[in-house]
């Protein structure tokens, strides 16, 4: 067991170093250790001028997370008649950090998991760079199945937005990372990268979640120069907006 733990620790360190190098990081974030998640999310009063209205929950959606995740891959959702496999969310129900992507990638269906292949490898390095892993984040997609051509149909965006917002409210994370344009539109109602660079408030029944929008790893693979900007987003996500 000790050897396996050592291997996992070394792998995480190597993954974080790979991401930092790709993002062009050449200085430490802080000289002293930091509890990244200890930074409080600004209160609803702080966001009074810009906070979104509380989410209107659709009665048909289950009020318990486990029930909701099972319902999400059933026949009551917009993607039910689409081809392919519905991929359920993963991660702790009480995760401090939630990540929402637009939809599964083409290779994800074979594994039955979100963020696999080269995209998933880069995603794992991004998480490792801020001291996280898949084991501690709640990972979900706006679309449970991959749409034709990988683009979310506009006619179901409003319903998928309602479903995704309900999902966030059930997890009630301290921070939410939105990866890509479709995820930004679904939750913040605006395109990314216009939503980048600031912490958005998302109000739900339990309180307020701080939301950060950033580039999807598949975009970063195509446009490596954007990794430096993505690193800034990750710092903002973890409460260090001053860097």
Describe this structure in words.
The protein has 243 residues and is an alpha/beta fold. Residues 1-7 have low confidence and may be disordered. The protein starts with a helix and ends in a 6-residue tail after the last helix. The protein is built from 8 helices and 5 strands, in the order H-H-E-H-H-E-H-E-H-E-E-H-H. The chain has helices spanning 2-23, 65-72, 108-111, 117-129, 157-171, 181-188, 217-222, 227-237, and strands at residues 97-101, 137-141, 175-179, 200-203, 208-214. Strands 2-1-3-5-4 form a 5-stranded mixed beta sheet, sandwiched between helices. A hairpin with a 4-residue loop joins strand 4 and strand 5 (208-214). 36% of the residues lie in helices and 11% in strands. It has a single domain, classed as Uracil-DNA Glycosylase, subunit E (3-Layer(aba) Sandwich), CATH 3.40.470.
| CATH arch. level architecture | 3-Layer(aba) Sandwich
Global structural class: alpha/beta
According to CATH, the homologous superfamily is Uracil-DNA glycosylase-like domain
The total number of structural domains is 1
In short:
Residues 88-235 form the Uracil-DNA glycosylase-like domain. The protein has helices spanning 2-23, 65-72, 108-111, 117-129, 157-171, 181-188, 217-222, 227-237, and strands spanning 97-101, 137-141, 175-179, 200-203, 208-214. It is an alpha/beta fold.
